[in-house]
Amino acid sequence: MTAITKKPENPIAHLTEADIEAIGAELDAIRQEVIDSRGESDAAYIRKVVDVQRKLELGSRAVLLFSVLPPAWVVGTVGLSVAKILENMEIGHNVMHGQWDWMRDPKIHSTTWEWDNASTAEGWKHSHNEVHHTYTNIVGKDNDLGYGIMRVDEDQRWHPMHLGQPVWNFINACFFEYGIAAYDLELGKNLRIPKEKRSESFKRSARNTLRKIRKQATKDYVVNPALAIPTGSAIPALTANFVANLVRNLWSHSVIMCGHFPEGVETFELKAIPDKETRGQWYVRQMLGSANISGSKAMHIMTGNLSHQIEHHLFPDLPSNRYGEVAPKVKAVFDKYGLNYHSASLPAQVGSAWHRVVRLSLPNGWLATTNAKNLPSQLKLLYGMATGDRRTRRVAQLHLERQARKQAAADSGTTKATVAA
Amino acid sequence: MSATAAARTAAPARVGTRGLLRRVADAAVSPLTVDDLLDHFHPLRGGTGADQVKGRIVEVRPETAEAATIVIKPGRDWSGHIPGQYVRVGVDVDGIRLWRCYSLTHGPRPDGRISITVKAIPDGTVSQHLVRRARAGQMLHLAQAEGEFVLPDPLPAKMLLVTAGSGITPVIGMLRNLFSKATLPATDIVLVHSAMARDEVIFGAEMRRYAATGRLRLIERHTDTDGLLTTADLAAEVPDLAERIAYACGPVGLLDALEEHYAEQRLTLHTERFRPAMVDTDGAAGGTVTFAGGTSLTADGSTPILDAAENAGVLMPSGCRMGICMGCVLPMTSGAVRDLRTGEVTVAVPGETGAGGVSIQTCVNAAAGDCQINH
């Protein structure tokens, strides 16, 4: 999407300053209600999830000791995949957000939790909690907008490298935990700096991440397979761990893509954000910059309640088990102020997010202006843009945009209908 | 984070086959440890470390309408106690872990269980929970026994025990221990106990039984009919007071009066306090307290920094919560705090007060301006 301030119809143009502050107050009240009623049953919930997750993982690993038998391999792999997903999504992500800090239990606390992931808790808390949750969907500021390897917004400049982004995105999905680790380290940026000039904090974080990756790999690919040697199950146990990690990676990548990438989620221009953003303004940005996934209770738990991405972004430190309960109240605020509460099923949101990744792998306007008749000339233009220098690209881009505007003006009726759909 | 990571990896250095097995098992469940998993199956096992002891409530026995004894089976790493000592107990109340100190009310028992006796004080979150809502089967967190309020060995010839209200709790532990031995002690014991009314006397029947069987002389006073216990009353009731080694436990007012009296007479008195005496700091200005981890909170001038920080979700080291054990000490790198017991202000100025800052007891110090704490 284009940053809201550049759109012909700014979705918040109808809100007055007073409206925005009233939204802030109403959302604060919803938040306070949960904080006031937080207690024993919430604590019991997270302890139960931790208990179930650990027993499931332990049980699955025990079954995998006999994974030379195909049914054992299947049961163990499914169990381990679910356990890893639960650990990362409903437990790790949420504990590290400080959602359970109020319990004052040092074993379930944002400052002590370490998760089953290549990325370190420390690195994740910085890149995710501090950067992404503060600067959500601000183009150029929130690295989650494409993770620095993809173009997911019209306002991010197109580069020939983006032609391959559907492939990068798929590879990133398969090895998502390593992608996150690299992303937390800002590896791309830091590796471009000469070795001797890299900051101490980067070197320290890189060492910690390597140590974490080594421990994770030792567990999944050395110790657990080795324990299965007596039954001749070492190789099946190893593949089971690999598959479980792959499943967890694909699942968490899909869920996270659904949070901010589906078509219709809004982005923001840095220069349009006031220096001192008020609570209300921050809330509105979070409201428009996130998308929910509708589904069953089991689905919500498996996504770590990130299916309630909107509620999570409004209240990142409220216990995840409460998001479902506040969702109708939050939606009522959206409706009251005429804002779009973006929610759809998992397949619809995943499809929409992938659609955006594919669409934006091409220069703005290219897809819209291409039809069967002009395909050869359009391809030629694209080839020119992919191989030419920056100036060539700019000229071609201006041409495309002009064409797109002309076409839009010609059939404005149909375009509007498409947008509405 | 880094401190915790270090704590997680710094497992006790075990050697030999067991140590190797443990390392392999830990590597198989990283980033957890085998102990994290065993906690889900056998929380009372040994080997958890002295600071990770849990206990299971096995009985909640009402003592009076307002008090109950909680009998606890401690984990194997509980190192035992001497009668008169107290234990810090961590209780999850409404999902929040709160720690309080309670005197142990038994001597070491043959069944290895320990007990605390709790009086529900109005608005007391933890005491109300333990007396009214605690049930057998629930888990508690325990620190190791602490405290210097214990009888000497060998016992003196003559002893005076002065208690009021729930101040009887450490003393009943001492008495039960003495009277459970095969040979009764030769010590001449006088117990002066003051309580609100006869039916509010915790362990009343037990004390009267000890008196009836000649194990001690009991002077029982009820403030509803006899008024508050004064030092003059005490001198009148116990003529040979000067010859007796004295132990006292009870409310701040009583202990202060006794200490003054004993100091005047140049006699020795051992006391146990449940709460520190605080100066009046109502209306004192607080400030913003910032932690090295980035958390920042506004604290008023009369709330201990420990409480303010815990309310804001900061994981704080803590101990006795009354300024004795030094378990809550943290370095303040800049700013000012006021000691709630004395009103004294401690100031840390970067560059003047040493690189590590000034150590402050967060449980008895409140913000007296903005301060930075390295935690």
Structure description:
The complex is a heterodimer of chains A (421) and B (375). By secondary structure, chain A is an all-alpha fold. Helix content of chain A is 63%, strand content 2%. A two-stranded parallel sheet of chain A has the order 1-2. In chain A, helix 1 packs antiparallel against helix 13. Chain A is globular, with a radius of gyration of 23 Å. Chain A starts with 16 loop residues before the first helix and ends with a helix. Chain B has 375 residues and is an alpha/beta fold. Chain B folds into four domains: 37 residues, no CATH class; 90 residues, Translation factors (Elongation Factor Tu (Ef-tu), domain 3, Beta Barrel); 115 residues, Rossmann fold; 87 residues, Beta-grasp domain (Ubiquitin-like (UB roll)). Chain B is built from ten helices and 18 strands. In chain B, strands 12, 13, 14, 15, 16, 17 and 18 form a seven-stranded mixed sheet that branches. In chain B, strands 4-3-6-1-2-5 form a six-stranded antiparallel sheet. A five-stranded parallel sheet of chain B has the order 9-8-7-10-11, with helices on both faces. Chain B is globular. Chains A and B meet through helix 2, helix 4 and helix 8 of A and helix 1, helix 2 and strand 4 of B.
